[in-house]
Each structure stands twice: as structure tokens, then as C-alpha cells.
Amino acid sequence: MLLSIQDLAVRNFHFDATGLVVDVAPTWSIPRCGECGAKCRSGHDSRSRRWRHHDLAGMTLRLRYRIRRAYCGA
Fold first, then answer.
1. Which of 2, 33, 41, 49 has its CA 20 to 30 A from that of 73?
2. Burial class of residue 22, CB neighbours in 10 A (0-12, 13-18, 19+)
3. What is the pTM of this model?
4. Left (φ > 0), alpha (ψ -120 to 50) or beta: where does 29 sit?
5. pLDDT of 36-60, one tens digit each?
6. CA pair distance 64, 50, nearest whole angstrom
């Protein structure tokens, strides 16, 4: 609730030299298309990305998320 993000769950967090890093994951298990949001049958290729979020209590806050690409049939 503090981060004010929807459809993502906090899995872990740690501090590094730049501030706080929070690992997040989607609350759904079925892959979805990044373009249209449709549910997809299968996913492929994943990699980890970081985004800067609003600072939290004077610390830099970064969200780390494992991006999964999906095959969209739509």
C-alpha cells in the first residue's frame, strides 16, 4: 500500500549503495500481452529490469521486475 502500485506483489527487498531495491511480481500467473492486455497461452524470454519509483523517506527507491514476453494471438 505504501508504494501505491496495483496488480504487483512485493516479493523481497534489500538495500544497496543507491538506496532501497524492491523485487515485485505480478499477482496473476497467466502471461498477458504488453500491447493489448489479452491473456496469452505461453510466454518466452525473460529478463530483469529496474525502474526508479518515487523516493521513500529520503531514499532512492527502485523496483526490480522480471519482464516476461508473451506470444499474443490477438
1. 49
2. buried
3. 0.67
4. alpha
5. 888 887 766 677 888 888 887 888 9
6. 4
